[in-house]
Amino acid sequence: MAGITARRHRKRKLKAEINVVPYIDVMLVLLIIFMVTAPLLNLGVDVDLPQSNAKSIQEKKDPVVVSVDSAGNYFLTLKAGDSQAVTAEALQARVRGIVSQNPDVAVFVQGDAKVNYQKIMDALVLLQSANVKKVGLMSQPDQSTQGRR
């Protein structure tokens, strides 16, 4: 019986430590998965959505305003009140010249409510081909919401 008791004393004592190696392996696998999938999550298109009850924009310089009337004719306003009728080619050439001198100039499109939406889109395409980086759309405030504020 002496041999049996001696074997019992030779057994290893229990360790009160946590083996963190498997947790580190899992963490590294998750890190690799997130690093691979994170760039795939940014496949959206940057769009500045319109805000309701927006305040008017205060510009230090006069903006360039492209107007489209109800007949689909283009007008270019360089300074407040100085509006000139232009063709599509002339509009593109003049805006390209303005943007080449001042790339940060504000360009706005003002369309008549009765004009075909395709004419507004054509104006936006003309401005894009004239190297305009940012274009804003102008609108009138809704008169029915003015009294509710």
TrEMBL record:
It is found in: Cell inner membrane; Cell membrane. Gene3D superfamilies: 3.30.420.270. Keywords: Cell cycle, Cell division, Cell inner membrane, Cell membrane, Membrane, Transmembrane, Transmembrane helix. It is a single-pass membrane protein. It comes from the Bacteria. It holds the Pfam family ExbD. HAMAP family: TolR (MF_02203). Belongs to the ExbD/TolR family. Part of the Tol-Pal system, which plays a role in outer membrane invagination during cell division and is important for maintaining outer membrane integrity. The Tol-Pal system is composed of five core proteins: the inner membrane proteins TolA, TolQ and TolR, the periplasmic protein TolB and the outer membrane protein Pal. They form a network linking the inner and outer membranes and the peptidoglycan layer. This is Tol-Pal system protein TolR. It comes from Lysobacter stagni.
